[in-house]
Structure formats: structure tokens, C-alpha cells
Amino acid sequence: MKAVLSIAASAAALGVAACYPPPQQLTRLDCPETQGELTRIGQAADGRSCTYVGEGGAEVSLRIVEVEGGVDATLARLEDELRSYLPPQPPAAPAGVQGAEAAPAESESAAAPASGSAGASADAAQKASAEAKSDASAPLSVEAEAEREGGDVVRVDLPGIRIHADEARDEAKISIGEMTIDASDSGAVIRTRKDARLRGEAFAREKRGVRARLVIAGDQVGPDWRYLAYEVSGRKTGPLAVAVVRAKDGDGDDIGHGDITRLVRRNGGA
């Protein structure tokens, strides 16, 4: 799980702060020649997209994305785009097939989020985040049980924190505030999504902006890429500044998340 913890720590960089003027309606991107360790290698004539490369070889594509059908529907489409880089999933076993040809029911249900629609995954992540932020008076629970041969099952349920880990299966589901982590021996899927105030509206009652990140990392990504991510900042009504990241480094050490965050927020303003 060392790589998972490294990815999670990198995901926490979503909180990196930057000081720029209040955002205007996003029609053209501000794409500096360099942003920290990122170097610009391409820019569209219409100003709606540009590309960067990081010192560790990460490829970053920054673009303007219109909001269609709401923020969550737009994020689901971005997740579909990331998952298009994943290797094809094996077809599900026909109903009624038993034995070695049919996967156990538990395995099928565990694989469903990876092979199902991005919209369903986004809904599940939102639900997990909402449960994690439940009322502080909710019962507290900490359990450690040797339920299965070969490893322990650990469950921690606290206000804002939820950890369910199964050593025998080498998997863990973690929810900390707006961040959810679904980790296994083959990699991890990490989501953060939060409402945010727009730059220059620090004292506004309404949070009119949104920030989000999705990371898919590890062996599950395939031979060509080991790390896929998007990062989003902007008005809930759009347009959004979106960075799509692809890298061959599976643990996220050389991605330059802080620089990507600054670049996205510089344009999105949330």
C-alpha cells in the first residue's frame, strides 16, 4: 500500500493556494511558457487548449470544458475519457455459469465500479463523501477482526473518516472528508470533489465554484500508462478549466501536482 499512500498524499495537494486576480468568464486560457516544473510544448490558436510536459515525463493537457447537464454529469464524462485509456475489461461470465468459468458474486460486485459507467461511480463517490460528513453525534466504531484466513479486517468509522481494510484481499476503501480512496494490490482510484468560493469572493455566502480531481493509478492502467488523472477548477455553471494528466510513473512521485493545481486554478478561479 506504500504507492497508494504516496498517491493519496499527492492528491491532498488539491489544497495548494495561489493568488491571482478575480476570475472573469473563461474564454481563453492563460498558458505561461513554464509553470514550476511544467514546460509548455503546444498551444491552440483559439486559446482554448494547451499542452505541457513535466520533468518526470507526465503529459498535461489543459483545456476549457463547457458544463453540460450539470457539474457531476460533466465530471462523469471526463472520467469516461480517462477510462478509455484503460485496457479492455474481460467480458462478464454468462448468467448461470458455475465453477472456474464464473467469478464469485463478491468479486463481480467489487469489479462493477471499474467496469460500469462513470456516472454510477461518481454517484457512489458522492454518497460515500456524504456519509463520511455525517453528524458528529453518529456512533463511533473501531474494529479489528481476524475474519479471514491470511489477514485481518479493519474497520474505522468516525465523523469525517471511514476506513475499511481487508488484508487478505489486499484492498481498502477510505473516505476522509471530500476524498475517497478505493485501493487494491493492482492500484487505486482517488476522488476529491468540493464546492468552493470563486477567487475574490472569500467572504461570499454562496460557493459558486467547484474543484475536483480523479486519479487512477497502478497496474490496472495498463502497459502504456500507469497514472491517469484529471483536475478541475471553475464556476459550477462553467466553463471549467480542466487538466488531463497521463504519466508512466505509477506512484505519482514525479507528477508535479502542485504545479498542475496552480495552472488549473490560475485559469478556473475556484
Can you describe this structure?
There is one protein chain. This protein is an alpha+beta fold. It folds into 2 domains: 2-88 and 111-133 and 184-268, no CATH class; 135-176. It is 23% helix and 34% strand. It contains 5 helices and 13 strands. The protein has helices spanning 2-11, 71-83, 105-115, 118-132, 257-268; strands at 34-35, 38-43, 49-53, 59-65, 141-148, 151-158, 161-166, 171-176, 179-184, 187-196, 209-218, 227-235, 240-247. The protein has a 13-stranded antiparallel β-sheet, with helices on both faces. β5 and β6 (151-158) form a beta hairpin. α2 packs across α4. The longest helix is centred in the middle third of the chain and has 15 residues, at 118-132. The chain is globular. It starts with a helix and ends with a helix.
What is this structure, in a nutshell?
This protein has 270 residues and is an alpha+beta fold. Helix content is 23%, strand content 34%. It has a 13-stranded antiparallel sheet, sandwiched between helices.
Keywords:
single chain, alpha+beta, 2 domains, 5 helices
Topology (SSEs and partners):
Elements: H1 2-11, E1 34-35, E2 38-43, E3 49-53, E4 59-65, H2 71-83, H3 105-115, H4 118-132, E5 141-148, E6 151-158, E7 161-166, E8 171-176, E9 179-184, E10 187-196, E11 209-218, E12 227-235, E13 240-247, H5 257-268
Antiparallel strand pairs: 1-2, 2-3, 3-4, 4-13, 5-6, 6-7, 7-8, 8-9, 9-10, 10-11, 11-12, 12-13
Helix pairs in contact: 2-4
